UniProtKB/TrEMBL annotation:
Record-given protein name: Precorrin-6y C5,15-methyltransferase (Decarboxylating) subunit CbiE
InterPro entries linked to this entry: 4pyrrol_Mease (IPR000878), 4pyrrol_Methylase_sf (IPR035996), 4pyrrole_Mease_sub1 (IPR014777), 4pyrrole_Mease_sub2 (IPR014776), CbiE (IPR012818), Cbl_synth_CobL (IPR006365), Cbl_synth_MTase_CbiT (IPR014008), Cobalamin_biosynth_MTase (IPR050714)
Gene: cbiE
Transferase among keywords: yes
Annotated keywords: Cobalamin biosynthesis, Methyltransferase, S-adenosyl-L-methionine, Transferase
Species in which this protein is naturally found: Roseofilum halophilum BLCC-M91
Length: 419
């Protein structure tokens, strides 16, 4: 019984095959493939089976194994998002011999001239966007996306814009790779929304630096889009999201000429909103990491906010060196939540408030226990927000991580605890 030779082929057709693989195809007495692949061999004398109903065709192949020399023609590398995986469920491995061609991903990265040993490769061909959404939210780069007519480059661009990510990508569309009508384009996501593309395409997404200039007049007075901030390259999602920022500002109850602490400021997104909203306020953005301090300073320059002072240090120790606050926002607590709360309570000016954003049950329980011991008034806002994301022709909700906002008003406190 002859082995089944599975031959990968590109858009250049038979001309792209090596001499050895061409000889294997020449010896075939039965060629199996799509209409496009079979058309590359118009003069071949072998019988032909078209892969229309794949299951039916492969069963026919099984019936003719003993009497035919069979070659199955597939695109690119058959074991790379190709027919190879299915063939291994129909035939034992020893009965198959694979002859891969250069894959579409290899060709795409060579055309855009980007190293791809660390690439994230995602197929949305007949699948949903979930894996791609996760990769984008984590700031993966480079990313190769295998598309289909429903999950097209335009649909990917729509998704990218809707996610409102602080990570920015160069958007490449590679069409008809290896063919005479090959086309490689670098587009903005906005441009990709307006274009139509050849059915055979692959999208490549590569990190690009964020524009250093920004039109401040185009920004809303409140609620800066997440994508406008400089963020951590390896953790772009580590930013207080726009919707949560708006609620935090409401809970703080800001007034002119206040001194405000932003503890665990991260990228400084909350500080920037306060600085723009209340120009007469003095905001101290406290962050323990040097990377965070650099981002706070870059964002302050970006939004031309002059009333935010970045301070590198670990709370609560660093807090004793800062002027007493009217308002405190605690976005990051590290390992000493109770120490931070005690320092804030001791230094808070009359009429002051402390607002915390808590993401874990453990920090929530610790904070509530501390509040009860000190018999403080508090209120809780449980925030669960979802954003719409496109799914092909439809739209679904993608949830953000839930956050609990805990607001403490010590100067309104009695022995009674309110919820």
């Amino acid at each position: 019984m002859h082995p089944i030779n599975v031959v990968g082929i590109g858009l250049e057709g038979a001309a792209g095959l090596s001499g050895t693989v061409q000889e294997i195809v020449d010896r075939a007495t039965l060629l199996v493939g799509s209409d496009r692949h079979l058309a590359y061999f118009p003069q071949h004398p072998a019988q032909r089976l078209t892969l229309n109903d794949i299951s039916q065709t492969l069963n026919q192949v099984k019936e003719r194994l003993s009497s035919e020399t069979i070659v199955i023609l597939v695109s690119g590398d058959p074991l790379f998002f190709g027919l190879g995986r299915l063939l291994l469920t129909y035939f034992p491995p020893e009965q198959l011999c694979f002859h891969p061609h250069v894959s579409s991903v290899q060709l795409a990265f060579s055309r855009v001239k980007v190293s791809w040993q660390d690439a994230k490769i995602i197929s949305i061909h007949g699948r949903d966007f979930d894996e791609l959404v996760t990769a984008l939210q984590k700031g993966a780069s480079p990313i190769a996306v295998l598309t289909d007519p429903l999950h097209s480059p335009g649909a990917i661009a729509h998704l990218l814009l809707n996610l409102d990510l602080p990570t920015h990508y160069q958007f490449w569309v590679c069409e008809n790779l290896g063919g005479t009508d090959e086309l490689i384009q670098s587009l903005s996501p906005q441009d990709a929304l307006m274009r139509t593309f050849a059915p055979l395409n692959i999208v490549i997404l590569v990190h690009k630096p964020q524009d250093s200039c920004i039109d401040l007049n185009s920004l809303p007075a409140l609620g800066i889009p997440d994508r406008q901030f400089y963020s951590f390259g390896d953790r772009p999602g580590l930013i207080t999201k726009r919707e949560i920022r708006l609620l935090i500002l409401g809970e703080l109850g800001l007034q002119p000429k206040q001194t405000i602490w932003d503890i665990g400021a991260g990228t400084g997104s909350v500080s920037m909103e306060i600085g723009r909203l209340v120009p007469t306020a003095q905001i101290y953005a406290i962050e323990k990491t040097a990377a965070g301090i650099q981002l706070i300073q870059k964002n302050a320059r970006r939004f031309r906010v002059s009333n935010v002072i970045s301070i590198q240090g670990k709370a609560p120790d660093i807090l004793r060196q800062i002027p007493a606050p009217h308002r405190v926002f605690i976005g990051g607590t590290g390992e000493d939540l109770q120490g931070i709360l005690a320092c804030c309570l001791a230094t808070l000016l009359p009429g002051g408030k402390i607002v915390m954003a808590l993401a874990t049950l453990e920090h929530w329980q610790e904070a509530i226990a501390w509040i009860h011991r000190h018999q403080l008034t508090y209120r809780v806002l449980q925030v669960q927000v979802s954003r719409s994301v496109p799914v092909g022709r439809f739209t679904r909700f993608s949830p953000l991580n839930p956050v609990t906002l805990l607001t403490i008003e010590p100067f309104n406190s009695t022995a009674k605890i309110t919820h």
